Amino acid sequence: MTHTRNTPASNTQSRPRRRAVRQKTTLPASGFVGRARRAREDPMAVRPLRDGRYVVETDGGTYVVDSETDTCTCPDSAIRDARCKHLRRVHIEIADGLVPAPDERTAVCAVCGNRTYVPRFDSGPVLCDRHDHASGDLVRDRETKSLLVVLRATGDRADEARTDSDRTVADYDTNDDYGPHEPVFEAVYVDSVPLDEDIAELRAKKRYLFPASRLIPVESGFATEEVRRTLAGSHLGGESQTTQATLRLKT
């Protein structure tokens, strides 16, 4: 779980955008022929099942597709061993983010409430792509406009995570506009990154805690893997511990 959000969270829906269950729809079919075309232009409704398979409802019948074995219960697949239009449609909708992949489930983002997909057996707070961040991502603080590098997701809510002052993150006035339920991230300010050099040093940077929506995404994968490991592991000595590492900037 990782993430960044907005001062009060925007209502803009993040990808994937999902249609109502069982509503048959068509997809653009220009340039396609045969089964590939029928997979798009024929009205179909795709619904994921809990076992990773999919129900595909059409005007001519309802079938079950297994995208991992590339099989379908329709005659075209079961009898003629063809890659039928139902199977093709399922693969299209997975690729377009309209339905979860076989190893995913639909969940609700803990920050904005939008639906998203997560690994089927993941537990804990869920964050959508728009609000999720990984260790090493570059973000901007909404309050100070300063740049930071994300170290880790703490696993705590804003009304649970405590700073060195023994106050919860939600207790700070600067976090009044962010939900107390939001997951908290640990990050360091990068307020002196030279724009004309390839290397910037992070020396003795104090770590700070932020509600997810206070951080604005700027660039993912900003820090090298080695730096991410160093920074993410530095929390073991306590929040006020400092760390020294080299941050490689993209040119």
3D architecture notes:
- The protein is α+β, with helices and mostly antiparallel strands and 251 residues long.
- Among the domains are: 62 residues, no CATH class; 111 residues, no CATH class.
- 13% of the residues lie in helices and 28% in strands.
- It has a five-stranded antiparallel β-sheet with strand order 11-9-8-7-12. Strands 1-2-3-4 form a four-stranded antiparallel β-sheet.
- Strand 3 and strand 4 form a beta hairpin.
- The protein starts with 33 loop residues before the first helix and ends with a strand.
SSE pattern, N- to C-terminal? HEEEEHHEEEEEEEEHE
Query: For the terminal residues, how far apart are their CA atoms?
Result: 28 Å
- Side by side, the strands of the main sheet go 11-9-8-7-12
Specify the structural class: alpha+beta
The largest β sheet comes out as:
5 strands, antiparallel
Given as residue ranges, the uncertain stretches (5+ residues, pLDDT < 50) are 1-20, 193-200, 235-251
Relative helix content: 10-25%
Please report the total strand number as a whole number.
Answer: 13
Radius of gyration based on Cα positions:
23 Å
Number of H- or I-type helical stretches: 4
Which range does the strand content fall in? 25-35%
State the shape.
Answer: elongated
Overall pLDDT confidence? 79
